[in-house]
Protein backbone atom coordinates (compact mmCIF):
# COMPACT_ATOMS: atom_id res chain seq x y z
CA UNK A 1 0.00 0.00 0.00
CA UNK A 2 1.20 3.52 -0.81
CA UNK A 3 2.79 5.25 2.16
CA UNK A 4 1.21 8.35 3.68
CA UNK A 5 3.82 10.92 2.74
CA UNK A 6 4.07 14.13 0.78
CA UNK A 7 7.85 13.72 0.55
CA UNK A 8 9.53 11.23 -1.79
CA UNK A 9 12.91 10.35 -3.25
CA UNK A 10 13.22 9.20 -6.86
CA UNK A 11 15.81 6.47 -7.22
CA UNK A 12 17.10 4.94 -10.45
CA UNK A 13 17.54 1.17 -9.80
CA UNK A 14 19.84 0.96 -12.84
CA UNK A 15 22.22 3.39 -11.16
CA UNK A 16 21.68 3.14 -7.36
CA UNK A 17 24.81 5.19 -6.64
CA UNK A 18 23.35 8.14 -8.54
CA UNK A 19 22.05 11.06 -6.46
CA UNK A 20 18.31 10.91 -5.79
CA UNK A 21 15.78 13.53 -6.77
CA UNK A 22 13.36 14.99 -4.24
CA UNK A 23 9.62 15.31 -4.81
CA UNK A 24 7.04 17.07 -2.66
CA UNK A 25 3.28 17.47 -2.99
CA UNK A 26 2.17 21.03 -2.25
CA UNK A 27 -1.08 22.82 -1.55
CA UNK A 28 -1.85 25.92 -3.59
CA UNK A 29 -3.20 28.07 -0.75
CA UNK A 30 -1.55 30.14 1.96
CA UNK A 31 -2.32 28.49 5.29
CA UNK A 32 -0.15 28.58 8.39
CA UNK A 33 -1.20 25.04 9.35
CA UNK A 34 1.29 23.71 6.80
CA UNK A 35 4.24 25.47 8.48
CA UNK A 36 5.73 22.24 9.93
CA UNK A 37 5.65 20.67 6.45
CA UNK A 38 7.32 23.74 4.99
CA UNK A 39 10.10 23.38 7.54
CA UNK A 40 10.63 19.77 6.44
CA UNK A 41 10.66 20.76 2.79
CA UNK A 42 13.27 23.47 3.44
CA UNK A 43 15.72 20.78 4.57
CA UNK A 44 15.93 19.64 0.94
CA UNK A 45 15.12 22.73 -1.13
CA UNK A 46 18.56 24.33 -1.38
CA UNK A 47 20.37 20.99 -1.65
CA UNK A 48 19.59 20.95 -5.37
CA UNK A 49 20.74 23.26 -8.14
CA UNK A 50 17.56 22.81 -10.19
CA UNK A 51 14.14 23.50 -8.71
CA UNK A 52 10.88 22.75 -10.54
CA UNK A 53 7.44 23.90 -9.48
CA UNK A 54 4.17 22.91 -11.15
CA UNK A 55 4.18 26.07 -13.26
CA UNK A 56 6.36 29.19 -13.53
CA UNK A 57 5.43 31.78 -10.93
CA UNK A 58 6.91 34.82 -12.63
CA UNK A 59 4.03 35.78 -14.87
CA UNK A 60 3.51 38.60 -17.35
CA UNK A 61 0.05 39.62 -16.19
CA UNK A 62 -0.76 41.13 -19.57
CA UNK A 63 -0.49 37.68 -21.13
CA UNK A 64 -3.33 36.41 -18.94
CA UNK A 65 -5.77 38.73 -20.69
CA UNK A 66 -5.43 36.65 -23.85
CA UNK A 67 -5.88 33.28 -22.19
CA UNK A 68 -9.38 32.68 -20.83
CA UNK A 69 -8.79 33.81 -17.28
CA UNK A 70 -11.47 36.43 -17.79
CA UNK A 71 -15.03 36.06 -19.02
CA UNK A 72 -17.63 38.59 -20.17
CA UNK A 73 -19.17 40.29 -17.13
CA UNK A 74 -22.65 38.96 -17.93
CA UNK A 75 -21.56 35.33 -18.40
CA UNK A 76 -23.41 34.34 -15.22
CA UNK A 77 -26.72 34.99 -17.01
CA UNK A 78 -26.23 31.79 -19.02
CA UNK A 79 -26.28 29.76 -15.82
CA UNK A 80 -28.20 31.69 -13.15
CA UNK A 81 -31.35 33.77 -12.98
CA UNK A 82 -31.05 37.31 -11.63
CA UNK A 83 -32.71 36.14 -8.43
CA UNK A 84 -30.17 33.33 -8.00
CA UNK A 85 -27.25 35.65 -8.74
CA UNK A 86 -28.40 38.17 -6.12
CA UNK A 87 -28.92 35.38 -3.59
CA UNK A 88 -25.45 33.90 -4.18
CA UNK A 89 -23.92 37.37 -4.00
CA UNK A 90 -25.63 38.14 -0.70
CA UNK A 91 -24.60 34.85 0.91
CA UNK A 92 -20.95 35.05 -0.16
CA UNK A 93 -20.66 38.69 0.86
CA UNK A 94 -22.03 37.91 4.33
CA UNK A 95 -20.04 34.69 4.84
CA UNK A 96 -16.68 35.71 3.35
CA UNK A 97 -16.73 39.43 2.68
CA UNK A 98 -16.30 38.71 -1.03
CA UNK A 99 -18.57 40.65 -3.39
CA UNK A 100 -18.85 38.71 -6.64
CA UNK A 101 -20.21 41.84 -8.31
CA UNK A 102 -16.64 43.16 -8.22
CA UNK A 103 -15.27 39.97 -9.77
CA UNK A 104 -17.81 39.13 -12.49
CA UNK A 105 -15.12 39.23 -15.15
CA UNK A 106 -13.21 36.39 -13.47
CA UNK A 107 -13.85 32.74 -14.19
CA UNK A 108 -15.69 31.18 -11.22
CA UNK A 109 -12.68 28.97 -10.43
CA UNK A 110 -10.74 32.06 -9.38
CA UNK A 111 -13.60 33.29 -7.22
CA UNK A 112 -13.70 29.84 -5.61
CA UNK A 113 -9.99 30.11 -4.89
CA UNK A 114 -10.60 33.47 -3.20
CA UNK A 115 -13.28 31.87 -1.01
CA UNK A 116 -11.08 28.92 -0.06
CA UNK A 117 -8.31 31.34 0.84
CA UNK A 118 -10.79 33.10 3.14
CA UNK A 119 -11.34 29.75 4.88
CA UNK A 120 -7.61 29.29 5.43
CA UNK A 121 -5.71 29.97 8.62
CA UNK A 122 -3.40 32.61 7.27
CA UNK A 123 -1.12 34.67 9.48
CA UNK A 124 0.80 36.47 6.73
CA UNK A 125 1.78 33.06 5.36
CA UNK A 126 2.48 32.55 1.67
CA UNK A 127 1.54 29.55 -0.45
CA UNK A 128 4.12 26.76 -0.50
CA UNK A 129 4.58 26.95 -4.28
CA UNK A 130 5.37 30.66 -4.08
CA UNK A 131 7.69 30.11 -1.14
CA UNK A 132 9.64 27.44 -3.04
CA UNK A 133 9.97 29.68 -6.08
CA UNK A 134 11.06 32.74 -4.10
CA UNK A 135 13.54 31.00 -1.79
CA UNK A 136 15.10 29.04 -4.65
CA UNK A 137 15.44 32.22 -6.70
CA UNK A 138 17.02 34.07 -3.81
CA UNK A 139 19.34 31.11 -3.32
CA UNK A 140 20.60 31.49 -6.89
CA UNK A 141 19.04 28.25 -8.11
CA UNK A 142 17.77 27.46 -11.58
CA UNK A 143 13.98 27.65 -11.23
CA UNK A 144 11.42 26.55 -13.82
CA UNK A 145 7.90 25.19 -14.22
CA UNK A 146 7.10 21.59 -15.16
CA UNK A 147 4.25 23.03 -17.21
CA UNK A 148 4.36 26.31 -19.08
CA UNK A 149 1.87 29.11 -18.49
CA UNK A 150 0.60 28.58 -22.03
CA UNK A 151 -0.08 24.91 -21.32
CA UNK A 152 -1.99 25.78 -18.17
CA UNK A 153 -4.10 28.29 -20.08
CA UNK A 154 -4.86 25.65 -22.73
CA UNK A 155 -5.99 23.30 -19.97
CA UNK A 156 -8.24 26.04 -18.61
CA UNK A 157 -9.84 26.49 -22.01
CA UNK A 158 -10.83 22.81 -22.00
CA UNK A 159 -12.40 22.92 -18.55
CA UNK A 160 -16.16 23.00 -18.08
CA UNK A 161 -17.11 26.49 -16.95
CA UNK A 162 -20.63 25.15 -16.34
CA UNK A 163 -19.19 23.02 -13.54
CA UNK A 164 -17.42 26.03 -12.06
CA UNK A 165 -20.67 28.01 -11.81
CA UNK A 166 -22.36 24.92 -10.31
CA UNK A 167 -19.58 24.65 -7.70
CA UNK A 168 -19.92 28.31 -6.77
CA UNK A 169 -23.69 27.98 -6.38
CA UNK A 170 -23.29 24.79 -4.33
CA UNK A 171 -20.86 26.50 -1.97
CA UNK A 172 -23.34 29.34 -1.44
CA UNK A 173 -26.15 26.85 -0.78
CA UNK A 174 -24.28 25.30 2.13
CA UNK A 175 -21.44 27.42 3.45
CA UNK A 176 -21.17 25.38 6.64
CA UNK A 177 -20.63 22.16 4.69
CA UNK A 178 -18.07 23.90 2.49
CA UNK A 179 -16.12 25.02 5.54
CA UNK A 180 -16.21 21.50 7.00
CA UNK A 181 -15.05 19.98 3.71
CA UNK A 182 -12.21 22.45 3.45
CA UNK A 183 -11.17 21.80 7.04
CA UNK A 184 -11.17 18.06 6.31
CA UNK A 185 -9.06 18.61 3.20
CA UNK A 186 -6.51 20.62 5.18
CA UNK A 187 -6.39 17.91 7.85
CA UNK A 188 -5.71 15.28 5.19
CA UNK A 189 -2.92 17.44 3.81
CA UNK A 190 -1.30 18.17 7.17
CA UNK A 191 -1.52 14.46 8.06
CA UNK A 192 -0.06 13.60 4.62
CA UNK A 193 -2.99 11.32 3.74
CA UNK A 194 -2.37 11.47 0.01
CA UNK A 195 -4.94 8.83 -0.98
CA UNK A 196 -7.68 10.60 0.96
CA UNK A 197 -6.55 13.89 -0.57
CA UNK A 198 -6.90 12.39 -4.04
CA UNK A 199 -10.35 10.99 -3.29
CA UNK A 200 -11.55 14.30 -1.88
CA UNK A 201 -10.14 16.28 -4.80
CA UNK A 202 -11.50 13.95 -7.50
CA UNK A 203 -14.97 14.27 -6.03
CA UNK A 204 -14.93 18.02 -6.57
CA UNK A 205 -13.61 18.03 -10.14
CA UNK A 206 -16.63 16.50 -11.87
CA UNK A 207 -16.22 16.58 -15.67
CA UNK A 208 -12.81 18.26 -15.31
CA UNK A 209 -11.18 15.23 -13.65
CA UNK A 210 -9.50 13.85 -16.76
CA UNK A 211 -8.26 17.25 -17.92
CA UNK A 212 -6.98 18.44 -14.55
CA UNK A 213 -5.64 15.19 -13.12
CA UNK A 214 -5.14 12.19 -15.39
CA UNK A 215 -3.82 13.94 -18.50
CA UNK A 216 -1.62 16.33 -16.55
CA UNK A 217 -0.21 13.49 -14.44
CA UNK A 218 1.08 11.88 -17.63
CA UNK A 219 2.83 15.12 -18.59
CA UNK A 220 4.27 15.72 -15.13
CA UNK A 221 5.59 12.17 -14.76
CA UNK A 222 7.12 12.15 -18.23
CA UNK A 223 8.95 15.43 -17.66
CA UNK A 224 10.10 14.55 -14.14
CA UNK A 225 11.52 11.25 -15.40
CA UNK A 226 13.37 12.92 -18.26
CA UNK A 227 14.78 15.68 -16.04
CA UNK A 228 15.86 13.22 -13.35
CA UNK A 229 17.78 11.15 -15.92
CA UNK A 230 19.66 14.29 -16.94
CA UNK A 231 20.25 15.62 -13.44
CA UNK A 232 18.68 14.85 -10.05
CA UNK A 233 16.50 17.79 -9.07
CA UNK A 234 13.86 19.13 -6.68
CA UNK A 235 10.26 18.74 -7.92
CA UNK A 236 7.06 20.17 -6.46
CA UNK A 237 3.45 20.11 -7.63
CA UNK A 238 -0.05 19.80 -6.18
CA UNK A 239 -0.41 16.89 -3.75
CA UNK A 240 -3.53 15.55 -5.49
CA UNK A 241 -1.32 14.50 -8.40
CA UNK A 242 0.72 12.09 -6.27
CA UNK A 243 -1.43 9.06 -5.50
CA UNK A 244 -3.68 6.65 -7.36
CA UNK A 245 -3.44 4.33 -10.34
CA UNK A 246 -2.95 7.30 -12.65
CA UNK A 247 -0.93 9.32 -10.14
CA UNK A 248 2.57 10.63 -10.74
CA UNK A 249 4.15 8.21 -8.25
CA UNK A 250 2.74 5.17 -10.02
CA UNK A 251 3.57 6.56 -13.46
CA UNK A 252 7.18 7.10 -12.39
CA UNK A 253 7.30 3.51 -11.16
CA UNK A 254 6.11 2.40 -14.60
CA UNK A 255 9.13 4.24 -16.05
CA UNK A 256 11.35 1.99 -13.94
CA UNK A 257 12.09 4.33 -11.05
CA UNK A 258 11.88 3.38 -7.40
CA UNK A 259 9.92 5.81 -5.25
CA UNK A 260 10.92 5.95 -1.60
CA UNK A 261 8.70 7.72 0.91
CA UNK A 262 10.70 9.88 3.29
CA UNK A 263 9.79 8.51 6.70
CA UNK A 264 9.13 10.36 9.93
CA UNK A 265 12.55 9.23 11.15
CA UNK A 266 14.27 10.72 8.11
CA UNK A 267 12.27 13.95 8.45
CA UNK A 268 13.30 14.54 12.03
Short note summarizing the structure:
This protein is an alpha/beta fold.
Describe the 3D structure.
There is one protein chain. The protein has 12 helices and 6 strands. It has 268 residues and is α/β, with parallel strands linked by helices. Strands 4-3-5-2-1-6 form a 6-stranded mixed beta sheet, with helices on both faces. Helix 4 (108-119) runs parallel beside helix 7 (161-173) and helix 10 (209-230) crosses helix 11 (248-254). The longest helix is centred in the C-terminal third of the chain and has 22 residues, at 209-230.
Keywords:
6-stranded mixed sheet, about 270 residues, about 10% strand
Layout: helices, strands, pairs:
Blueprint: E1 7-11, E2 21-26, H1 35-45, E3 50-53, H2 61-64, H3 82-96, H4 108-119, H5 128-138, E4 142-145, H6 149-158, H7 161-173, H8 175-190, H9 194-205, H10 209-230, E5 234-238, H11 248-254, E6 258-261, H12 264-267
Parallel strand pairs: 2-5, 3-4, 3-5
Antiparallel strand pairs: 1-2, 1-6
Helix pairs in contact: 3-7, 4-7, 10-11
Tell me the strand order in the biggest sheet. Answer: 4-3-5-2-1-6
Number of helical regions: 12
What kind of sheet is the major sheet? 6 strands, mixed
What would you call the shape? elongated
Q: Mean pLDDT, nearest integer?
A: 91
Low-confidence stretches: none
First-to-last CA distance: 23 Å
Relative helix content? 40-55%
Report the sheet-strand fraction: 5-15%
Number of strands: 6
What value does the Rg take, in angstroms? Answer: 19 Å
SSE string, helix = H, strand = E? EEHEHHHHEHHHHHEHEH
Q: Which class do the helix and strand fractions yield?
A: alpha/beta
